[in-house]
Every structure is written in C-alpha cells, then in structure tokens.
Design a protein that fits this description.
The structure is a homodimer of 252-residue chains.
Chain A (H helix, E strand, L loop, with lengths): L24 H5 L5 E3 L4 E3 L7 E7 L2 E6 L5 E7 L4 E2 L10 E4 L3 E7 H10 L3 H25 L2 H16 L7 E4 L4 H8 L3 H13 L3 E3 L7 E4 L2 H8 L22
Chain A binds a DNA duplex (30 and 30 nucleotides) through helix 6.
Chain lengths: 252, 252
DNA sequence: CGGTCAATTGATGTAGTTCAAGGTTAGTGG
DNA sequence: CCACTAACCTTGAACTACATCAATTGACCG
C-alpha cells in the first residue's frame, strides 16, 4: 500500500521542488492532488476532528488559537516542506489558515498512521518531525517567558534569516510573508510594540528597507548584532561552555 | 526481546502503584532497578547525550533550561507515571532535577526505541504521550503569551486540582511540591508576583491555608471562581460555542 | 478623489518587575 | 534551651517596559 513511486508527474507541480527519495514522507503525499488556498483561507479549525494530515508544498500558513476574550495566539508558521497535524489525536488543537496563496496536499489520518506504522523508513522521519516541533515549542516557551520585545523580534528575524539563506551573504534580505499583527500574535506583543521595535532596530542600523513601501522585505545589515540582540547566548565564541554559573538569577 | 512479564516482584516496589497491563509502557520499565533521587538532585543536564528514557515512579521533578543571563525557565513538572525524554533526538533539550525525593527507572534509549518500533501496542501509547506533551506545550504558550499573573496562577492551580482529585470534594486541598521560585520560573513571573497573587487570591476567598506555616498545601475554597479567574473560557456553561466572534481583539 | 487597510508614531496608563526590608521556619551548635 | 544562620516567603515603594488609546501616514483601488 505504500507509495513507491518517485516524482510522479502530477498535473499541478508546485514551485517548491522537494527532495523526493522513495519512501520518504514527501513521497507519501505525492500521489495526492494539490489543493490551492487563497490568502486568508482556512484549512481547518481548532476543535475539528483531526481527520487529515497535510503537507505544505508552497506558501505560508499560520496555526493559531483564539482565546476566550477574542485574542489570537499564533503558535507557529508553516512553510513549504512542513507537515501539519502529526502530533494530534482526536481533534485539531489549533486552526490553520493560509497567509499567502498556498498549496497543500492532504492524506487521511488513518492512512497516514498505518503507512507510518508499517514502514521502517518513514517512522524515523515522522519522529524527527515531532522532535523538531517539540524543540520549537520549547524555544518559544523560553522566548515568551523571558525575552524583551527586542530580543523576541531579533530571535524571530534570526530564525528567518537562518532559514532563508546560508550564513554567508552580507546584506541578506529576508521576505516576511506575514503581517505585523501576525508577528505580534506570534511573539506575544502588540502590533504597536512590533512596529516600534522595528524602527528602533532600523535606527540602530541592524535593519533597513529597500524602499519604504516594501515593509515585508527586510534587509539585515548587521547579522552579528542581530544575533547579539536575540540574546540566545550561544552566538559566536561564547568562551564558557558546560560551566554553568548558578548564582545571581533575577529579572524575568 | 519484548518484556512480556507483568508485575515482576522487583525488590524496590515504589509507593505509587501504576496500572500494569502486559506490554504497556510501564511494563517496559518494570524490570529496571529503581533509582532514588534526593531533593535537588539532577537526573541529567541540558546538552547531555540523550542516552536514556526515564519513567517517574514517585516524587516530582522539574525540567528546565538556564538561559544566557542566568535566568531559569521551567518548561514542565513531572510526576509519578510520567515518562521523560521520549521526544528527543541527539541531546537533552533541558535539565531535569528532583524537587522532592523521587524514584525513577531508566531504559537505554536504543532499547526503548527498538522496543517501541517492534511493538504495536506500545507505539500508540508512546504516541499518546508525545501528543499530550505537545498539547501541554501549546497551552503553556497560550498562558505565557496572553495571561495575566492571576490567570496564570489560577490556571496552574486548576491543573493541579484536576490532577489530584475528582471534580467533587468541595474544599479540596492540593499539595504543591515545588517552591514559589519554581512556580515563578514556570509561569514566567517573579517570585514576588507569585507571592502577591497568592495573597490576593486568599483575600478574595478563593484559597486558604490550614495553618500559615504550611504554604505548600493550599485549600481551594471556591473551585468555580478559580476556574473563572483562570480564564480558559471553556468552563461551565459557556453558551456560545463554535460561534467565534472575531472583531475586537486587543490587549496582550 | 474618497475609502479602506496596514503600519507608524505619539501620549498616557499600568501590570509586573526591581530593589529593599522584614518575617517565619527549620536546622545547628554552644 | 537559646542564639545564629540560612532558606523561603511575604510585603512595601519605586520604576519601567510594554499595553492601551488615539491620531497620522502611506499604499492600493474601484
């Protein structure tokens, strides 16, 4: 029952060409028809029966929860290559919406589960996926627990920077598909604070904009400084390692 | 290779007697010797090679990360029945320490992995474990993103309340094994704020203390009010459901 | 051009942090 | 038994980072 074909020429071939080994997770989806979402379109809602697992082929989605007073918490962004809904049981824990026009493929959960259960090559890949998801959640918790607005924004930009290009290329430009409001809801800030922090980083010379109109493409002028300001503590040449200094621990 | 025995009378039988079906996750650990930890003792450190998976038999542990400036972020507490280290790859993402005197059993990761891979009854259980972990992480992100100090504390107490007793028993008492500092580091607050919020809830009549000395055993006087103040929006009789009111969304 | 929507900027408010000072309990050693 | 120290928790006063409220700008569009 396993998809053993590779790169079957489905009519709608998306822009993002992913690695296509036989028996990899991507191959599992490759037989399914592509589905197109317009910007803002929902894929599923929090609380729905979790009947499908999705692979993102193109575009960016946001996953989020709406809490009682109407506020929105974005728990993650998903890009080409990401898989949605692996670590779920009965119901979706969050809603998923396209930010940009996006392409996805879906697989019935029961099919996905049995395929993974019966395939020794697939299982580690799914496991790795879940581990990454968990690690990302941990990082986000640290970010939300401790970091200042500036640190949050810098961490966010740094993550996108690492994702988009290799660590070379001096004045690198990153394209943020999401709005300021999305960023705010992801970073646990308000839109105003995000905006103010962006301008502060601009005046510091960390960022710049090609032309003032394109507020979603950000040029990183000083990668090193960005990493410093992100405050993850593991940037270049941290001399002490596994020498944990307990002691003064204050501030939140 | 699978442990097919059930309830082998190992010399060190812990206090907490867990369900012991054949082939369940607990049975997998049951052959291993019990290890005892004194309060404050470390089980492993963030960054160590993740060579073992642990089952907690008794006591409470904290898992946490120390960030660059010395602050500590507690990402979870673990009690009897919990398993540590499933969703990890190369290295531990956090340190683990006993809060109270604790008992654990350990299993080499490679043994654990192969046992889970080859056993169709074990896999869903591990999967469920990971899903719960993920769901908890999501909830924590929401808590840290949006909630006020009072909401955070109430959510925390409510979780402990649900865990310890059935939803009956009017003036229920919960035993918190961790210090105020632990609570603060878990809730993304300072110790002072936790302390102040506890007293505020006391004056509101939500909580009380048997005698002022025992600050770790808290009597919940008004469960309903606690649930209200936790602000999860899903407590008793929320009339509107799947009628999501978009619109005014502010505050953080 | 008016209308809408996203982003920015300014002015003000406040929840929670920070700094500092008790207070309580428990352990230790005279 | 009582001083003596050390955790741990609580309380008070002042400060600050961020939220909130409100107004402005700029881009896009029929």
């Amino acid at each position: 029952m396993m998809s053993a074909t590779s790169f079957t020429g489905v009519s709608h071939t998306p822009k993002a060409v992913l690695v296509d080994r036989t028996n990899c997770l991507h191959a599992l989806f490759s037989k399914q028809p592509a589905e197109y979402l317009v910007a803002g379109q929902s894929l599923f809602f929090e609380g729905d029966d979790a009947n499908h697992v999705f692979e993102v082929l193109d575009g960016t989605l946001r996953i989020f929860r709406i809490i009682s007073d109407g506020r929105r918490v974005i728990t993650g962004f998903l890009d080409a290559g990401d898989v949605i809904g692996v670590s779920l049981r009965e119901h979706y824990l969050y809603s998923a919406e396209a930010i940009t026009p996006s392409t996805v493929r879906r697989l019935p959960r029961r099919y996905f589960d049995s395929a993974v259960a019966s395939n020794d090559e697939l299982r580690p890949e799914v496991f790795a996926q879940v581990c990454d998801e968990m690690a990302a959640a941990q990082d986000q918790m640290v970010l939300l627990s401790c970091k200042s607005a500036e640190e949050r924004l810098c961490s966010f930009l740094l993550k996108y920077l690492k994702r988009t290009i290799g660590p070379s290329e001096r004045p690198a430009t990153i394209e943020l598909p999401m709005s300021r409001q999305d960023m705010a809801d992801y970073l646990g800030l308000t839109i105003e604070t995000v905006s103010r922090t962006v301008t502060k980083l601009t005046t510091k010379g960390v960022l710049s904009f090609e032309n003032p109109g394109m507020r979603h493409s950000i040029r990183i002028e000083r990668q090193g400084m960005l990493a410093q300001l992100a405050g993850d503590g593991d940037e270049y040449g941290d001399p002490r390692r596994d020498l944990i200094v307990y002691g003064e621990r204050r501030r939140h």
